[in-house]
Structure formats: structure tokens, C-alpha cells
Write a structure and sequence with these properties.
Layout: H1 2-22, E1 34-42, E2 48-56, E3 62-73, E4 77-84, E5 88-90, E6 94-102, H2 106-118, E7 122-134, E8 140-150, E9 159-160
Antiparallel strand pairs: 1-2, 1-9, 2-6, 3-4, 3-5, 3-7, 7-8
Length: 161
């Protein structure tokens, strides 16, 4: 009789534990964010206006506090540092765009000008760090390295996308 009683309580305890595990909600996953250039516009004063797309791949919102990325154009065309403190909150598995102004170094200017003049694509690399704070968490530094390509935008002089 006692064994049967013990078995019922054990089964009930297992069901309660299983239900408690189910009620914790979805997993809170923090994934490395990404950054990429959405658009680079060469301004009349020689500076670049860069629309930087920040992507949050986490399952929770994140606040992006600081960005410090080195931009290289055409593998050897050192363009400079993209630095910003956007204080921007991005929802789970979403993205947003910030604009960063850059006074590019000569090698970067030449590589971009050549791509625009010839109508060719130009590869670029972003390498550095993004500081972000997960919702209800501590700030974390994420290393970023992104290789991609920009192409002249048809009908938009001085614009690479």
C-alpha cells in the first residue's frame, strides 16, 4: 500500500516539475550582433555619410551603446574609424540604421572614387567592436568582422550600396 502511495506522489511531483519547466517562457538567447554598410554617400565636402545597419540576432531587445569599427575599402584602402554612441534599442531579431559621418583617409577616398568612376563594385571590411546591453542584463562587448561589397547605385551619383 505504501509503495502505491509513494508512486502516486512521485508521479505527481514529476508532472509538477515538468509543468514548471514549461512555464518559464521562451529562452532568452543573446547572439552576436552584426553591422554592415547599407549606403555610403560621398558628400560635396569630401566626407562620407555612412548608413550603418545594426542587426540584433538575439531573442531579446538590446540597446546598442557604442560602435568602434575600422573600415577598409578594396582590401588595402584604409578609410578610417566609424565611431558612434547611438544609444539605440533594437527589438529581438530586428535591425535599425544609424548615420555616421567619416572624413576618409586618402586610400579609402581613392578606392571609392575609382569604383564610382568605373561603375564597379568595391569590397569592404568592417572590423572592431560593438558594445550592447541585453534587456535586463549587463553591457557586453562584441567583436565584429564583416566582409561585403558596395556597388554604385544607378541614378544616384556618389552613392554606393
Amino acid at each position: 500500500m505504501k509503495a502505491r502511495h509513494w508512486a502516486r506522489w512521485s508521479a505527481l511531483a514529476l508532472v509538477v516539475l515538468w509543468l514548471a519547466g514549461c512555464s518559464s517562457g521562451p529562452a532568452r538567447r543573446v547572439s552576436e550582433p552584426s553591422a554592415r554598410i547599407q549606403q555610403l554617400t560621398v558628400r560635396a565636402d569630401g566626407q562620407w555619410s555612412i548608413e550603418l545597419r545594426i542587426e540584433n540576432f538575439s531573442s531579446i531587445p538590446m540597446r546598442f551603446d557604442a560602435i568602434d569599427l575600422h573600415l577598409t575599402v578594396a582590401q588595402q584602402g584604409d578609410a578610417g574609424q566609424l565611431r558612434a554612441q547611438p544609444g539605440l534599442s533594437i527589438g529581438p531579431e530586428s535591425a535599425d540604421v544609424i548615420t555616421v559621418t567619416l572624413a576618409p583617409q586618402a586610400a579609402g577616398k581613392i578606392a571609392a572614387a575609382d569604383a564610382l568612376a568605373s561603375g564597379r563594385s568595391v569590397p569592404y571590411t568592417l572590423r572592431g567592436r560593438v558594445d550592447a546591453t541585453p534587456d535586463e542584463g549587463k553591457q557586453r562587448a562584441f567583436d565584429i568582422e564583416r566582409n561585403s561589397v558596395l556597388s554604385p547605385a544607378p541614378g544616384l551619383p556618389g552613392v554606393l550600396r
